[in-house]
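Following up on my earlier thread - several people asked me to post the actual chain instead of describing it. Fair enough. Here it is, all 624 residues.
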Amino acid sequence: MIGLALLLALQVDSGAKAPIWEDSKAEIRAADRELPSVLVDVPLQSRLSQPIRWGRIRFREKLISFSTYSAQNAQRALDGILIEPGRRSAALMALGCSRASGVRVLLESWAVGGGSMEQRAAILALGELGGQDSAFLLELAKSELPQIAESALVALMRLDSPAVRDEIDRIAADETNPNADIARSVKAFYASPEEVAAPESVKLLLELRWDAAVSYGLVGGKSRAQLRIEELERDPAFLEAVVLRSMRSLSVPGVEDHLLALAMAGGVEALRASALKIPRTLNKLYAEGSWEPANGTEWQAVLDAIDEGGARPDAVDLVRGALNLPSFRSRAAGLLVGMGDEEAATLLRDSLYDPDLETRIQACRAFGRSRNSRWAEELATLRRGEPNQRLAMAALVAQMRIGYQPADQQLRLIVLDGSQSDREILVEELLEVSEDQRVPVLLETAFPHLLGRLRLRVAADLVRRGRLLQRTELIAALEAGEEPDLAATFVRALRRVPGSRELQALTTLFPTHGIDVNIELTIALIDNNHTTGIALLTRALWNPPLDLSALAGALIVQQRGILALHQELDSPPTPVSEAGVRRVGFALGEWGGVEALEELAQRRPSHDPALQGAYLGAMSVRTQ
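Reply from S.P.:
Thanks for posting it. Predicted structure:
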C-alpha cells in the first residue's frame, strides 16, 4: 500500500518539525471513532465540499489495501453497462491502486474520453499505477481545463520521479504558461502540506482511494461485503426487522405470544408483524380498551398491515378507530368499505367531492373495494367533465373493479391504443390497486409498451403475483443498480418465486447499499436455508430481548431442525453472557419440548444456565 507520507511530501527534511502525517495515539483513536461506516454512503461531492480532516485520512490510509482481486472486481464493474458514475470512478482508481498489468491503455482512454469525473479519476489512477511513462500525463498538464491540468500535475507528483519534478518546476516557472499558477499551487502543497491548503485534486485522490478500497479492495484486511455483514450483525434494528418480517412463514404454537409481547412494548416492525399475523388479537385488545397505537406512525403501520393482509373483518374495530383520526379517515373508510361496511360507504361518498384532489382519488380507490355496482353511476358522474386525468382514471378503474362492464372495455382500449401519457397514468393507478384480481391481466397487456422506472415497477408487481416472464428484467435491474430506491421491492418480488438463477443473483447481491434491501435479501437467504442468512439469524438468537431471541430460534428450527439449537449451545459465540445462554436454552425448550429438554439434561448439570432456560421454555409450552 502506498503510504500517505509519500502522497503529502516526496522528500522530508530530517531536521524539520514532525510532519503532518505523523499521528499521536489520541488522534488515531479520535479518527477511529469518526470513521464513517461503510454502510453509510456519503456522496463524493458532499465529501469534496468539506475541509480535509487529516486524522481521518491518515487512519483510513493505514487501513486500505489492494490486490489482484481488486483489479478483477473493478474490471467486472467497468464492463457493466449501467454502472453508476461514482462507482465507475472508484473502479478506475482501483485499477490504478492495484497496479494491475495491462490497464494503462484503458486508463488513458478514460482520461480523454470519459465524463468529467471519470476523466479525472482515470488521470489520478495513472499516478497510482506508477511507472516511468510520464509523457501522457505531461501532455494532459497542458490542458485548457484547469481541473484536468491539476489532476495531471497531482498524478505526476505521485510518480516520484526527479525528472518529472523538473518538468513541473519548468511549468511553474514559465510565466507564459496558462497553467503555471496551478503547478505552483501543487508544488507549494507538497512542499508544506501542514501550511498550504490541499488542491481539490488531492482531495479527490484521497476520497477516490477510499472509495476504491471500500468497493473493490480491502479495508483493514476485509472486503466490503465482510465489513457490511459485521455491521449488520451489530445492528439490533436490522436483526429485529429480519426476524419480524419473516413471521408470516411461521405457524407453530407460541409464536403469537412472543409477537404480541414485542408489539405491546412498542415499535413499528413488531406492530406491523402482529397486524399481519394476529390481527384478531390486536383488534380484541383495542376493542377492550387495553391497547391502542401510540402515535400516527404506529397507526400507519397497523393500517398498512391490515391492508396488505386483505382487510379481513377480524380487524374491524381497529379500522373503525382510525376513523376518528383526520389524517387516516379516508384510508380507514376505504378499508371498511372493503369489509362490507355500508355506513362507511355513505361516509366516503362525501369524500368523492372533497376539495382535496388526493382525498377524492383515495375515495375512488376505496369504492373500488366495495364490489357494489350501485356506485357505478356515482363514479361515472364524477368522471364527466373531470379535467384531472389522474382522478378520471381512478374513477374508471374503480368502476371496473365493481363490475361495470363498459369500464372494462374502455380500460383495454387505453392500454392497447391510447396515448402513451394516458397509458402511463392508467398503469400508475392500476399499481395502486393491484391487489384486485382483474388488474394483473391489464398490467401484462400494458407491459410491452412501458419504459424505464414504470416498466420495472410493473415487472415487480407481476413477479410478486407469480408471473415469471419478468424475473430476468428485475434481476438485471438489481445487478445494474437501477432505481436503487426500488431495490427492496424488486427483491421482495423475486423472493416470492425464487428459482436457482434468482437465488444465485440475490446471494451475489448481498450485502448491498441500503438497510431495507439488505433486510429483504437476508430474508430471501433464510427462506432458502442459505448459510449467510442463518448466521444472521443466530445473531438475533443470542441477543436480547427474550421474545425476539425465541422467534429467531423458531425460524432456525424451521430451517435446520432442533439440532441446530443444540449445536449453538455446544459452540456459543465469545464472549457470551449467562443471560444469552439462558435465552438460547429457553428457545430450545420451547421449540424442542420435553424431548429436547431431556437430551440437554443428560449433558448439562442442573445449575447450567442453558438447562435452566430450557426448563422455562418447556414449561411455557405447557401453559399456552
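The radius of gyration is 31 Å. That should answer part of your original question.
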